[in-house]
Input
Amino acid sequence: MIITVASGKGGTGKTTIATNLALASCAKNKVQFVDCDVEEPNAHIFLKPQIEHTEAVVIPVPEVNLEQCSYCGKCAEICAFNALAVFKEQLLVFPELCHGCGGCSYFCPQKAITESPREIGAIEEGLAQEIPFKHGRLNPGEAMSPPLIKALKQKGSSAENLILDAPPGTSCPAVTTVKGSDFCLLVTEPTPFGLHDLELAVGMVKKLALPCAVLVNRADIGTKCIDEYCAQNDIPVLMHIPWDKKLAQLYAQGEAAVLHDQYWDKLFAQLWGEIKKAVSVAKNNKLEKEVERR
Output
């Protein structure tokens, strides 16, 4: 079971939910945690893993033999990301824009383009409590995080359950993380900004045809806008978490609440149970639709 914890905006408490959920469920379930927010990974602050292995991540970028190049412009024509520019007797390569698709070298009529590896970041692995932990670190100045997120997700997992902590928002990094999940938990807050960005996140998840549910954080300090929106759109709300000063203090200290208070441990264990039920319902609904089509 692959569970992605996502949010339409930053600051909703997504990482707090994801890390506490992992810690509360690891005792009874085989769980692995992957922090896919490779631009600003912070789950390690709360899980405190012992990093045991680091692996560089590279993407192939074009390298041009100008002696063979005829400056026909075919490579620039097929590149959707403008990573190459061809002039009368000059060819420029912009490696930071390259997505490593290999199209330029494949279609080059003169076979003047080869590919060389360029490091974009690293994957770090270790153990947090009893939880296998992974996160990515994008190199400073890199423009694209999806290749690193893909490499992070492709790393083998021996766990029965996988929790992915997604980057905030609904752009390419979030889509890359959410894609392929069994279920997406959308963390939001009951404010106009929270509702606006939740609508974007729901649109992203529906476009990917993934089942989802909502968790309302700091539920008692805003309005009922989230509940009304979810009721109108038939989106289940799995839990409301009130604002709590002690929880905020533990967060500020980089501590997971479930390790310090039995109340939060039980609450997040309950959340794990609700997620499992929601996943089961989603799978049954999908099966029924497939039967109907046949």
About this structure: The chain has two domains: 2-56+124-274, 66-111. The domain at 66-111 is CATH 3.30.70.20 (Alpha-Beta Plaits). The mean pLDDT is 91. Residues 258 and 265 are 4 Å apart (CA to CA).
